[in-house]
Each structure stands twice: as structure tokens, then as C-alpha cells.
């Protein structure tokens, strides 16, 4: 399959490369957690099936993609599809295991891995027609979950982020802010920070409805800015999303405006064509 | 269990107001808010049981023959859900963690 569609291959390669970067950027912490802590002091959670707490599961699930994804990156085609799918499967295994459950890294790796696996199996027409919109869908899904969970009095008042970031964080500028600002000002700043986070996430949650080029550029830049304003560890969450965005942009770069609608029109019966007459 | 598993892929970063705190003794629910343990609790961005599962050490938890207790709370729209977990250290060094449904308080002589 490699070489039949250089555009799709380039998009897959970029997305898979950034997926792998996201997967390994937190490796010192995660390997320490899974190997030294997990194997050294196993945590048995009574009432759960063995597979959900066994300490070997996260070690295997974490290391398998580290071996498989580079092969997909080099060989592309079917290999990329398999390695993307395997990455998604391992991310799911880690999401339900007590050692790492619902870590946002594995949430974005799962959805990005599925997108990569899908794209790597598509022909040129389908990949270009649907790839960018599905990439937008991945971004929207991730940020919709974040935005909805924050539409609560606890976040709207700024209370949660005040404690989590402004009082407890020992990194970046938070200790300096604590030392410099009076408590009332710090609390006000936390409220504005919380509102900004909710607004940004809500905006990104709607990106599936925007024009693909604008949406994917904006999402890639926003994800990069989030990492820059937080910690390098957040790159593990954002890099797979940035990869999906850039992959979508590479596909979009070859598409004429309204390509999705053209693709649909060519495949729908005559009666249904009127419904997609307008360019997307 | 199936529902819980199916929900995990859904993005849910920084959701709700989550707190976790630890205690060497079982504190009765009705006395929890006045206890020192609650005063020293920490806010978590999500999934407060990570106080045990996702930290780079499990050394402070559990002593053979004496249980430790993890209290977690998630608040949303004025509703609060609290859970208590009992953590025990086994002879081989592993930890066991289980939902603690016993009522009343207790203290282990260390």
C-alpha cells in the first residue's frame, strides 16, 4: 500500500510520529510508575478482575507500541494501520487499568490511534474527503468532555483551579504568584483563569463545525499553547492531537474546497444529491 | 463494571471538584468534616484515587496488621459523593485496596 498515495502516507507518518512522541515523552515517569512502583509494590484492588490490577499489564501495554509504532512509521500502509490500532488498543488497556486509569495521555492516544488506523486503510479519495473532518471530530470530542465537566459551579467560581493550580502547584509561575499577589487578587486571577479555560475548551469543542483549514490550524496552535503554558508532561496529551490536526491539514492541502460534498454527491443516489449541493 | 469500562475512553480531564485525604484511622462519616485528615486534604484535577494509584511511591501506605484509609470526594452542582477505601499492606509487600463499607470509627494501635 505504501507509495500508492504519498499524501495519505505523509499525513499518517506525521500523525503517527507525533503520537509516538506523546506516548514516550512521559516515559521516565510512567516506566518508573509501572515498573519500579507497580512491580515493586503491587496494588491489588479487591473486587476487580485480575487483568485490571495485575502489575504486568501496564508494562506490556506501554511497551508494545514503543516497539510497534516505529515499524509502522517506517513501513507505512498496512503496518501503520496495525500499529495505530495496536496503539489505540494499548491505550484502552491502560485507561481501564488501575495503574493509569483515565490518564488523559491515553485518552488522546486512543482516539488519535483510531484516526491513524482508519486513515492508513483508506484510499486517496476517502482519506482526503473524510480525514480532515474526522480529525476535527477527534479534537471536538476531547475538548467537549473537558468543557462539559467544567460547566459546574465549582469551576465557574474558579474554586477548583484556585486550589489545584494557584495554591498547590509548585511549578512554573504559581509559587511566584503566591508570593507576589495578595490572596484576594490570587483568587480573582484564578476565577479569570478558570473562565478562560472553559471558554477555550468550549470553542475547541465546536471545531468540528468550522471550516477544516481554520479549525485544524486553530486547534493545533491552541494545543501547542496549552503545553507552553503548563508543563512539558502535557505534551503527552496534546502531541497526538496536534498530529491528527497536522495530518488533517496535509490531507486538506490537496483537497479542493467542498471535497467532502463532492465525494458524497458522487456516491449518493440522484434524489439525495440535492441535500449536499452546497460546498462544505 | 461493563458501564465503567465503556466510559473510560470518554475524555474527562479536569472534571468536577475532587478531593482526597488520608488517615491512619477509620473516621465515622458524621465526624469526617471535623477531622484533621480532611483539613489536610488535597484537591485533584480528576480521579482522586490517584492519590494511591498514580503517585511515584506507595511507601507511606499500609502497615502490616494496620489499615490505612483513603477518603475521596467528588462534588458537582452541590452534590457530593464520598467514598472510603481501606488499604492494607501484605507480608510480601503488596498493597490491597478495597471499598470500606463498615460504619463507625476505629483506630489501630501502631
Structure characteristics:
heterodimer, A: 280 residues, mainly alpha, 1% strand, globular, disordered C terminus, B: 110 residues, mainly beta, five-stranded antiparallel β-sheet, 3 helices
Mean pLDDT of chain A comes to: 87
Share of helix of chain A, binned: over 70%
Shape of chain A: globular
What value does the Rg of chain B take, in angstroms?
15 Å
What fraction strand of chain B?
25-35%
Task: Report the strand count of chain A.
Answer: 1
Tell the overall outline of chain B.
Answer: globular
The computed structural class of chain A is mainly alpha
Structural class of chain B: mainly beta
Number of strands of chain B: 5
The spatial strand order of the largest sheet of chain B comes to 2-1-3-4-5
| Number of helical elements of chain B | 3
Helix-residue proportion of chain B: 10-25%
Radius of gyration of chain A: 21 Å
Describe the structure.
The complex is a heterodimer of chains A (280) and B (110). Chain A is globular, with a radius of gyration of 21 Å. The longest helix of chain A is centred in the middle third of the chain and has 27 residues, at 124-150. Chain A is built from 14 helices and 1 strand. Chain A has helices at 6-24, 27-40, 56-75, 77-96, 104-120, 124-150, 153-156, 159-167, 174-180, 183-205, 212-228, 235-252, 259-267, 270-273; one strand spanning 43-45. Chain B has a 5-stranded antiparallel β-sheet. The chains are: A mainly alpha (280), B mainly beta (110).
Indicate the topology.
The complex is a heterodimer of chains A (280) and B (110).
Chain A: H1 6-24, H2 27-40, E1 43-45, H3 56-75, H4 77-96, H5 104-120, H6 124-150, H7 153-156, H8 159-167, H9 174-180, H10 183-205, H11 212-228, H12 235-252, H13 259-267, H14 270-273
Chain B: H1 2-7, E1 17-23, H2 36-39, E2 42-44, H3 50-53, E3 68-76, E4 79-89, E5 95-99
Antiparallel strand pairs in B: 1-2, 1-3, 3-4, 4-5
Amino acid at each position: 500500500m505504501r507509495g500508492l498515495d504519498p499524501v495519505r502516507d505523509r499525513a499518517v507518518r506525521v500523525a503517527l510520529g507525533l503520537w509516538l512522541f506523546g506516548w514516550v515523552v512521559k516515559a521516565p515517569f510512567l516506566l518508573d510508575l509501572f515498573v519500579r512502583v507497580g512491580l515493586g509494590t503491587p496494588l491489588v484492588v479487591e473486587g476487580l478482575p485480575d487483568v485490571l490490577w495485575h502489575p504486568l499489564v501496564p508494562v506490556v501495554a506501554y511497551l508494545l507500541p514503543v516497539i510497534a509504532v516505529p515499524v509502522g512509521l517506517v513501513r507505512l500502509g498496512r503496518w501503520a494501520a496495525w500499529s495505530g490500532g495496536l496503539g489505540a488498543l494499548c491505550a484502552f488497556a491502560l485507561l481501564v487499568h488501575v495503574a493509569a486509569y483515565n490518564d488523559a495521555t491515553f485518552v488522546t492516544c486512543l482516539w488519535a490511534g483510531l484516526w491513524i488506523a482508519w486513515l492508513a486503510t483508506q484510499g486517496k479519495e476517502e482519506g482526503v474527503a473524510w480525514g480532515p473532518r474526522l480529525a476535527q471530530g477527534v479534537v471536538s470530542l476531547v475538548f467537549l468532555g473537558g468543557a462539559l465537566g467544567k460547566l459546574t459551579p465549582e469551576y465557574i467560581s474558579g474554586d477548583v483551579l484556585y486550589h489545584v493550580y494557584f495554591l498547590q502547584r509548585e511549578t512554573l509561575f504559581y509559587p511566584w504568584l503566591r508570593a507576589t499577589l495578595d490572596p484576594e487578587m490570587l483568587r480573582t486571577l484564578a476565577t479569570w483563569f478558570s473562565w478562560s479555560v472553559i471558554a477555550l475548551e468550549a470553542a475547541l469543542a465546536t471545531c468540528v463545525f468550522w471550516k477544516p483549514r481554520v479549525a485544524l490550524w486553530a486547534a493545533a496552535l491552541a494545543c501547542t499553547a496549552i503545553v507552553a503554558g503548563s508543563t512539558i508532561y502535557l505534551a503527552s496529551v496534546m502531541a497526538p492531537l496536534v498530529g491528527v490536526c497536522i495530518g488533517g491539514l496535509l490531507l486538506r492541502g490537496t483537497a479542493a474546497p467542498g471535497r467532502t460534498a463532492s465525494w458524497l454527491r458522487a456516491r449518493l443516489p440522484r434524489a439525495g444529491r440535492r441535500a449536499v449541493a452546497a460546498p462544505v | 463494571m461493563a458501564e465503567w469500562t465503556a466510559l473510560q475512553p470518554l475524555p474527562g480531564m479536569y472534571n468536577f471538584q475532587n478531593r482526597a485525604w488520608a488517615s491512619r484511622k477509620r473516621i465515622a462519616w458524621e465526624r469526617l468534616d471535623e477531622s484533621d485528615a480532611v483539613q489536610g486534604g488535597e484537591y485533584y484535577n480528576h480521579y482522586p484515587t490517584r492519590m494511591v494509584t498514580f503517585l511515584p511511591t506507595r511507601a507511606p501506605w499500609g502497615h502490616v496488621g494496620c489499615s490505612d484509609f483513603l477518603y475521596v470526594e467528588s462534588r458537582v452542582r452541590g452534590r457530593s459523593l464520598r467514598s472510603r477505601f481501606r488499604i492494607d499492606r501484605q507480608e510480601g509487600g503488596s498493597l490491597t485496596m478495597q471499598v470500606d463499607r463498615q460504619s463507625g470509627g476505629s483506630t489501630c494501635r501502631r
